Amino acid sequence: MELLTKLGINWQLLLAQVVNFMIVVGALSYFVYKPILNLIDARRERIRKSMEEASRIENQAKELDEIRQRELRRMDMESGAYFDRMKKQADALHEELIASAKIEAENLIQAAMRRIEEDRRKMMEDVLSTVRTVVIKMTEKILEREFSAADQKRISESFVKELPALLKS
User: Fold this and answer.
1) What is the pLDDT of residues 135-149, one digit of tens each?
2) Which residues neighbour 135 within 8 Å (Cβ) at sequence distance 6 or greater?
3) 3 state SS of 1
4) Which among 7, 17, 71, 134 counts the fewest CB atoms within 10 Å?
5) DSSP H helical segments within the chain, as ranges?
6) pLDDT tens digit string along 1-59?
7) What is the rounded end-to-end Cα distance, in angstroms, of the chain?
8) Other C-beta atoms within 10 Å of 147: how many?
């Protein structure tokens, strides 16, 4: 203590100031420092929760994006398969229409050929009938002048029998 007095320091005053400093430090610690630390801890906790929530939301966004990508791929595959089915159906319908058109064309051709053949047959019958009639009339006239009635009949019958064979050649 004597040393303090030689330096000009009042030890009682120094002790009172140390006690006052401790009281001020204790009061500041209790009333200011602890509430500030509590506020900082609470804010730190809110920030941590916000970061966790942001991380969770980011993970959800990634999962949703993956789900969306999977759904897009699935829909793309389904639409491709649907397009292929529709193309096959269109091709089958096209082939069916072509086959139907070919059959119809063949039927029309066959019907036209039958009509042509029928018309040809009728025309030949008409020609043969006309030729027979003309030949018979001519033969009758010729025979009336030169042959007897029996000769005329025999020659007419023979000629009528041979006429179709002659016309076909």
Assistant:
1) 777 777 766 666 677
2) 159, 160, 163
3) coil
4) 7
5) 2-7, 11-28, 34-146, 149-168
6) 677 677 888 878 889 999 999 999 999 888 888 889 999 999 999 999 999 999 999 99
7) 168
8) 14
Tokens of 134: 């003309």
User: Using an 8 Å Cβ cutoff, are 163 and 129 in contact?
Assistant: no
Rounded Cα–Cα distance for residues 53 and 66 (Å): 20
Return the domain boundaries, the chain.
2-168
CA distance 64 to 58: 10
Q: Do 159 and 139 contact (CB within 8 A), yes or no? A: yes
Contact 147, 119 (CB under 8 A): no
The two structure tokens encoding residue 117: 């053949």
